[in-house]
Design a protein that fits this description.
19 strands; 361 residues; mainly beta
C-alpha cells in the first residue's frame, strides 16, 4: 500500500473533469491521502492457442499513453504487478476470450492490465465485472498493424460497487478496434474509454449502453484523439434512467489535430428518461484544427417516451406496460444486437428487463 508521492491535489469537485462526479462516494479512490491496496484483477482459466497470459513486474512495462486523471495516476504509481494478455501475430481466435475478475473481498484495490493484439490477429475479448468491489483500474490495449480486436466490457456490479477505470486503446496501421461498454450495475461507475492512433488507415468504433436506477451514478467520458491522418472513429452510446436521483453523465471529446487530414468521425449519445427525478448530462465536444477532413459531427438527445410509438403498439392490443418495455428494448437493440455473441446479447437484454421490472416499468 502507498500514497501518491507526486504532487497531485485531491479533487474538490470544482474541476471540470470532476464536476459531475459524487466524490464522497468514491471510497477514497480519488483521495491521495487515503491508502489503497493493489491486486491483479484478472485471471485466465482457459488459455486458447495463440494467447498468452502472464504477470509482469512494473519495471518491465512502459505505459502506452499519458494521463492527467488522478485515479489512473494513482493506479500507475501504486500497482507493482501488471497482468498482460497477448494475442499472437497472424492468429485468429475463433471463440471469445474471457478475462475473469478476481474477487478482492470488498477491499479497495488498484489494478493494471495490458492487452496486446499482435499484427494481423483477430480476436474478441470479454471482461466481466460482477460482485461488490471498490476498484480503480487501467486497461491498456495495443493493436499492432492489421489487427482486429473486439473488446466487450460488462459492468454488472452489485448495488454497492464503486468502479473507476480507464480503457485506453492505441490503434496501429490498418488496425480496427471495436468496443462495447455495458454498464448496468454499481453504486458509482466512472469509466474513461479513450483512443489514439499510431498508424494510418486505422479505425475505432466505440459503443455503449447504460441503465441507471434510483441512486446510481453512471459516468462515461470518451476521448478520441485523432493525432494522425486518414483514421476513422464512430461513437454511439445510449442510456436509460429510472428512479429518484438516477444519474448518468456522458462526455464525448473528439480532438482532430492539425496534422490529422482525412479524418472521418462522428459521435452520438441518446438518453431516455423513464421517470421524474432522473437526470442525464450529455456533453459532446468536437475540436478541429484542420479543414482537410472527410467528415466530423456529433449529436446528443435526451427525452422521454415517444407517445406515438406507445399509441401504435397499444392500438394493436399490446398493454401499456409491455409496450413501454418493447420501446426500451428497441431503443437498445441496435447496439446490443451488434455485440456478436448471442449469449451475451441475451444476457444483457435479460438484465435490462430485470432492471425494468425492479423499477416497475
Amino acid at each position: 500500500m502507498s500514497t501518491l508521492t507526486t504532487n497531485y491535489l485531491t479533487p474538490t469537485g470544482r474541476e471540470e473533469d470532476w464536476r459531475f462526479t459524487p466524490l464522497s462516494r468514491l471510497a477514497g479512490l480519488h483521495d491521495s491521502t487515503v491508502e489503497i491496496g493493489e491486486g491483479v484483477a484478472f485471471d485466465l482459466s482457459i488459455v486458447p492457442t495463440g494467447v498468452s497470459f502472464e504477470i509482469l513486474d512494473r519495471s518491465l512495462v512502459t505505459a502506452s499513453s499519458k494521463t492527467k486523471d488522478l485515479v489512473i495516476s494513482r493506479v500507475r504509481e501504486t500497482v507493482t504487478q501488471i497482468a498482460k494478455l497477448a494475442i499472437a501475430a497472424n492468429s485468429e481466435i475463433a471463440d471469445p476470450i474471457y478475462l475473469n475478475r478476481k474477487a478482492s473481498g470488498g477491499k479497495p484495490i488498484f489494478s493494471r492490465t495490458i492487452i496486446n493484439a499482435g499484427a494481423n490477429s483477430h480476436a474478441t475479448l470479454v471482461v466481466e465485472n460482477i460482485g461488490t468491489e471498490i476498484l480503480g483500474e487501467e486497461i491498456e490495449i495495443i493493436l499492432e498493424p492489421g489487427s482486429h480486436l473486439t473488446f466487450i466490457s460488462l459492468q454488472e456490479w452489485d448495488t454497492q460497487a464503486v468502479h473507476v477505470g480507464r480503457h485506453h486503446a492505441v490503434i496501429g496501421k490498418d488496425a480496427s478496434f471495436k468496443s462495447f461498454v455495458v454498464t448496468i450495475g454499481g453504486s458509482v461507475v466512472r469509466l474513461l474509454p479513450t483512443v489514439e492512433y499510431s498508424g494510418q488507415g486505422s479505425s475505432a468504433e466505440l459503443n455503449g449502453v447504460y441503465f441507471a436506477t434510483e441512486g446510481q451514478h453512471l459516468e462515461h467520458r470518451i476521448h478520441v484523439d485523432h493525432n494522425i491522418p486518414n483514421a476513422k472513429s464512430r461513437v454511439n452510446y445510449k442510456g436509460a434512467l429510472s428512479g429518484n436521483n438516477a444519474r448518468t453523465v456522458w462526455i464525448g471529446d473528439v480532438y482532430i489535430h492539425a496534422a490529422a487530414e482525412g479524418t472521418d468521425t462522428y459521435e452520438l449519445n441518446r438518453n431516455l428518461l423513464l421517470s421524474d427525478g432522473a437526470r442525464a448530462d450529455s456533453v459532446p465536444n468536437l475540436e478541429i484544427e484542420t479543414g482537410e477532413i472527410v467528415g466530423a459531427g456529433h449529436a446528443s438527445t435526451t427525452g422521454r417516451f415517444d407517445d406515438e410509438q406507445l399509441f401504435y403498439l397499444q392500438s394493436r392490443g399490446i398493454s401499456a406496460d409491455i409496450a413501454r418495455r418493447l420501446v426500451i428494448r428497441g431503443f437498445f437493440s441496435d447496439i446490443i444486437g451488434r455485440i456478436g455473441i448471442p449469449a451475451i446479447e441475451e444476457r444483457v437484454m435479460n438484465r435490462i428487463d430485470a432492471e425494468l421490472e425492479s423499477v416497475g416499468v
